[in-house]
Specification:
Belongs to the four-carbon acid sugar kinase family. This protein has 421 residues and is of the alpha/beta class. It folds into 2 domains: 227 residues, Putative sugar-binding, N-terminal domain (Rossmann fold, 3-Layer(aba) Sandwich); 167 residues, Four-carbon acid sugar kinase, nucleotide binding domain (Molybdenum Cofactor Biosythetic Enzyme, Chain A), CATH 3.40.980. The chain has 15 helices and 18 strands.
Length: 421
C-alpha cells in the first residue's frame, strides 16, 4: 500500500544555492525528507511530498528590490503549500552589504506573516561560526579579521551584526545576549515579548546547546532567520513524518568546477592537483573573447577518467588585480558564465557527477543545466550533501560553499558516491 503524500511544515527561502544545500543536508540528517527547488517556483509547480521544502535563490548579491520580490513570491508559494513556518536562510558569515539584502528581505517576510520578534541566528558552531555580544566570529577570529574581509563580492569588514543589520533596515535591532540565551526558553520568550512593534533580535550562540535553546524559543514563530544550524535544530524538535530511503548517486565520470577564491577552496584544489589534472580559466582570455570554454571541454574529454578539475580560483591579491583591470561585476560574470557553459558541455559529453565549489558558481551551474529540483542525499561534510537533479537524465551535484569542507573533500565525496550505489 502506497504511503500518502505529506504536507511540508517548514518552508525555507535561501539566498544562495550552496547555502540552501547546506541547510537541506543538515535537515535531512535529522530524518526529515527534504526537496530543494532552484529559483522562484513556477506557477503550477506540483505539490511537494516532503517534510521540508527549500527554495534556493541567487538573491544574496542582486539589487535589494529584486531580492525582496523573489523572496516574497517564493514565500507566498510556500505558504500556499500549507507550511507552518518560514525560514530565511543566509550565510553563517552574514554575507551582505550596507544596501542589503538580509535586512530588506527580512522586513518584507516579517510583514507578510505579521511577525513581531524575529530571531537572527547566523551562527553555526559546527562550522566554527559563533556570535558573542552580537559580534560574529570565524573560528577564533572576528569576522572582520578573517579571510571573509577579502570576499570579492561581499567583503565583510564589520563584525558587529547589530551595526551590519542596522544599516540595512529601519526595524530596531536588539541583542539576545548569551546569559539570556542560557537562561532557557521561558526567559528568551519573556525578553522577546518586551517589544513595541517589530524587533529584530541578534542571538548570541557559542555552542550547539545555545542553538537548541533558541530553537525551542522560536519553534512556533511564523518567521525565523539564520544559518543552517538553527534550521536543523528546529527540524530536530519535530518527529519526521517518514524517513526517506538512502539516495543513490548516479554513476558516470566526475569533474570538479571551482569558482570560489576562498582559502579553503584554494587548499582543496591544491590537494586535488596532486593526483588529478587541473585546467585554470584565464579571465583575461575570456575578456579578450577567446574560446576558453571549448579549450576546457577538450581538456575534459582528454581526461574524463581522471576526475579533472576546471578552476577559476586564485589568491586575494590576484582577485583584486583582476577586478581593478576588468571591474568587479564583469570579471565575476565572465567566470560564472564560462563555468556554467562548461558544466552544460560536460554533461553533454557524459559526465554524471559534478563537484562544484562556490555559491555563485553553483548557481551558474544549476541554471546552465536547467535544474529545477534536487533530492538531498548523504552529507560528505557538514553542510555539504550529495544531491541528485531530477529529470530524464539524473545528474549528481555536490554544491559546496567555498569555505566548507576539509582538504580532501573531493576525494571523500567520490568515495561516498561509490558506496551509495
Amino acid at each position: 500500500m502506497s504511503t500518502p503524500p505529506i504536507t511540508p511544515w517548514l518552508g525555507v527561502i535561501a539566498d544562495d544555492y550552496t547555502g540552501a544545500t547546506d541547510l537541506a543536508g543538515m535537515i535531512a540528517r535529522t530524518g526529515m525528507r527534504v526537496v530543494q527547488l532552484l529559483g522562484v517556483p513556477e506557477e503550477g509547480t506540483a505539490a511537494i511530498d516532503a517534510d521540508c521544502v527549500v527554495v534556493a535563490l541567487k538573491s544574496r548579491s542582486i539589487p535589494a528590490e529584486d531580492a525582496v520580490a523573489q523572496s516574497v513570491e517564493s514565500a507566498r508559494w510556500l505558504l500556499s503549500l500549507g507550511v507552518e513556518q518560514l525560514y530565511f536562510k543566509y550565510c553563517s558569515t552574514f554575507d551582505s552589504t550596507d544596501h542589503g539584502n538580509i535586512g530588506p528581505v527580512a522586513d518584507a517576510l516579517a510583514a507578510l506573516v505579521s511577525a513581531r520578534s524575529v530571531v537572527f541566528a547566523p551562527a553555526v558552531p559546527e562550522h566554527g561560526r559563533t556570535t558573542y555580544l552580537g559580534h560574529l566570529f570565524v573560528g577564533d577570529r572576528l569576522l572582520s579579521d578573517s579571510p571573509l574581509r577579502d570576499h570579492p563580492i561581499n567583503p565583510m569588514t564589520d563584525s558587529d551584526l547589530r551595526r551590519v543589520l542596522g544599516r540595512q533596515t529601519t526595524t530596531p535591532v536588539r541583542l539576545l545576549d548569551l546569559s539570556t540565551v542560557r537562561s532557557g526558553a521561558a526567559a528568551l520568550e519573556a525578553m522577546r515579548a518586551q517589544t513595541d512593534g517589530r524587533v529584530f533580535h541578534i542571538a548570541d550562540i557559542v555552542s550547539d546547546d545555545d542553538v537548541v535553546a533558541i530553537a525551542e524559543a522560536a519553534r512556533l514563530d511564523p518567521l525565523v532567520t539564520g544559518g543552517a544550524a538553527l534550521g536543523a535544530a528546529l527540524a530536530a524538535l519535530r518527529s519526521s513524518t517518514q524517513s526517506g530511503a538512502a539516495l543513490a548517486v548516479p554513476p558516470g565520470p566526475a569533474l570538479v568546477l571551482a569558482g570560489s577564491c576562498s582559502a579553503a577552496t584554494r587548499g582543496q584544489i591544491a590537494e586535488h592537483r596532486v593526483e588529478h589534472p587541473v585546467f585554470t580559466v584565464d579571465v583575461y582570455a575570456l575578456d579578450r573573447g577567446e574560446d576558453v570554454v571549448t579549450q576546457a571541454l577538450a581538456f575534459l574529454t582528454e581526461n574524463a577518467d581522471a576526475v579533472p578539475a576546471v578552476v577559476a580560483s586564485t589568491d586575494p591579491e590576484s582577485v583584486r588585480q583582476i577586478q581593478e583591470d576588468l571591474g568587479v561585476e564583469r570579471s565575476s560574470q565572465l567566470v560564472e558564465a564560462a563555468l556554467g557553459e562548461i558544466a552544460r558541455g560536460a554533461v553533454a559529453q557524459g559526465f554524471g557527477r559534478i563537484l562544484v565549489a562556490g555559491g555563485e558558481t553553483s548557481g551558474s551551474v544549476v541554471n546552465s543545466l536547467g535544474v529545477r529540483a534536487l533530492r538531498i542525499g548523504q552529507e560528505v561534510a557538514p553542510g555539504v550533501p550529495w544531491t541528485v537533479a531530477e529529470g530524464e537524465q539524473p545528474v549528481a551535484l555536490l554544491l559546496k560553499s567555498g569555505n566548507f569542507g576539509g582538504p580532501r573533500i573531493f576525494a571523500d565525496a567520490l568515495a561516498i558516491a561509490e558506496g551509495s550505489r
